[in-house]
Amino acid sequence: DADVTQTPRNRITKTGKRIMLECSQTKGHDRMYWYRQDPGLGLRLIYYSFDVKDINKGEISDGYSVSRQAQAKFSLSLESAIPNQTALYFCATSDPQGTEQYFGPGTRLTVT
Amino acid sequence: AQSVTQLGSHVSVSEGALVLLRCNYSSSVPPYLFWYVQYPNQGLQLLLKYTSAATLVKGINGFEAEFKKSETSFHLTKPSAHMSDAAEYFCAVGLFGNEKLTFGTGTRLTIIP
Questions:
Q1: Cβ within 8 Å, pair B43-A41
Q2: What ranges make up the beta strands (E) of chain B?
Q3: What is the pLDDT of residues A71-94, one digit of tens each?
């Protein structure tokens, strides 16, 4: 079984809709991250969390919110989706020493 | 603040030829450096990492990278390309603790039969 899972894997939604992307991990790590990937731009950090009570904004947090429901679960929400939020979204987790980040398979989101 | 520059968004090499993917970094303090690979429709997988130990780092699938502080580089190499190496490769820089990685824009590697 995968260490980091994301649901859904693909989603098409309309402008203005609220959508939630979910991430679960079985590695027992405290640190979790949300990134978005756009062609030619690499991965950019949206939010990160060091534990259930510690949530921090990344470089592109506008238009997004997150919830850390438990050590193993970290959700990303788009309160009112817009077309330029069409992207591939990745969740990741890392160990306390920070020597590696483990990525989920990604969620492809299309906003029409 | 740290940043990463990957030269060449697309690189094509013949099967059996040398693979060289370039990465230059900027960091105000000694960095941690990483190479990740992304195969089609998959997440990112760690290839190798430099965390201030040996400057020549060996990773999976025959890849290696050398940390050169004087050149602020961490180029990825493989002596002989294989068809299965076709993927997108990302260089990333972080600081101690890895709380925030900064990724390059990626290099798509194509292998020519």
A1: no
A2: 3-7, 10-14, 19-26, 32-38, 44-50, 56-58, 64-68, 73-78, 87-94, 102-103, 107-112
A3: 999 999 999 999 999 999 999 999
